[in-house]
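At this stage, I put together one protein's amino acid sequence and its backbone structure tokens, which the following lines show:
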Amino acid sequence: MITEAQINAVIQKLQDSAELHTEEIDHLINANSIYLQYVDREGEVLFIEEKDYLEAIIYVILDVTGLIVTDIDKIIKLEEHNWEVMQSSKTITDAFDTYFAEYPEEDLLAYVEDSISVPDDEEGFDFLTQVGKEYMVVKCKSLIDYTLSQVS
């Protein structure tokens, strides 16, 4: 199980990095290039700022889990399920309530929730749209689910 401290350490590493594309980041991106290309292709509903933000959240998940995505079909199936939950929920908060029910990676899912749950008046986050938030949640939740499927 990933802890909040582990997540914060990755975030701090990103913030401390003078140059975002260090050798370690490049390796992680190259190892997951098929997955990242898939996310980029699918991200037509996002504005450029939202795409960049999603990539940063995904990077944290990939880094903290050490995950290399090899099965896009499995990701697609997980996304289909997570979209069903999102679409059957009245709000993103309701969807998170369902997602959190007995979820083993609670801190990682909470990181995703915190990342998209910024107050409307928070400066610098006005680029996040409702559609973008839902999309990001489904992508990130599915990536975490994929991580869990690789452990079991």
